[in-house]
Amino acid sequence: MKSGIFITFEGIDGSGKTTQITALIQHLDEAGIPYQLFREPGGTGIGEKVRDILLDKNNDSMLSMTELLLYSASRYQLTKSQIIPALESGKVVICDRFYDSSTAYQGYGRGIDLDFIMRLNAAATDSLVPDKTFILDISLEERHLRLDNKNLDRLEQEALDFHKRVHDGFLKMAAIEPERFIVLEGNRNPEELSNEIWETVKTLKELINK
Length: 210
Ligand code: TMP
What we know:
- The chain is α/β, with parallel strands linked by helices.
- The protein has one domain (5-209): P-loop containing nucleotide triphosphate hydrolases (Rossmann fold).
- The chain is built from eight helices and five strands.
- Strands 2-3-1-4-5 form a five-stranded parallel sheet, sandwiched between helices.
- Helix 3 (64-88) packs parallel to helix 5 (114-125).
- It is globular.
- The model has no long low-confidence stretch (mean pLDDT 96).
- Bound molecules: thymidine-5'-phosphate.
- Thymidine-5'-phosphate (TMP) is lined by residues 13, 39-41, 71, 97, 101-102, 105-106, 155-156.
């Protein structure tokens, strides 16, 4: 039985997830709350190898379905071997991306059937659903500025219209499940954003501990 809380962060590349995750961890450390942090794809020995395959620019012949199945394989390994046990031990689990990224990137971005992705996501997670998902939302213009000069990986170097579909996909997903998603304007002051995220996580934790 799950007794911890499960928080995920989503958004297009360059949206500021890393900064906000680092700040949340600092808050948890200061409050003495046990947590575990994972990232997707990756987070396990097998998952990190799958990540290398997925992000390798040389793998330009990868088919969309291969891509989706590899993300799902990494997710299943991480969920079963790490996330579920950490939640069962009562920890706060933070994941840098989870199945919503497959819906946004492989579904809205690549055009794979959304119902199929939903079923695959459930299979790859044992039907685990995050308690709260923060979407950091930045414009495509801001993304361009933030990623400028960076050595882009296979997904990041995709065409602008792909990233537009992913960006719009995240917002559509948030509108469909407003009780789980919190969309935050990623251009806001980082400290203000991290305080808002912390207040939400603290409230969730208090509710669960009641
Ligand atoms: P990261 O750069 O945030 O670590 O994520 C790696 C890349 O993989 C990023 O471009 C988003 C992409 N991605 C998908 O396309 N589908 C997925 O299911 C996940 C988890 C990530």
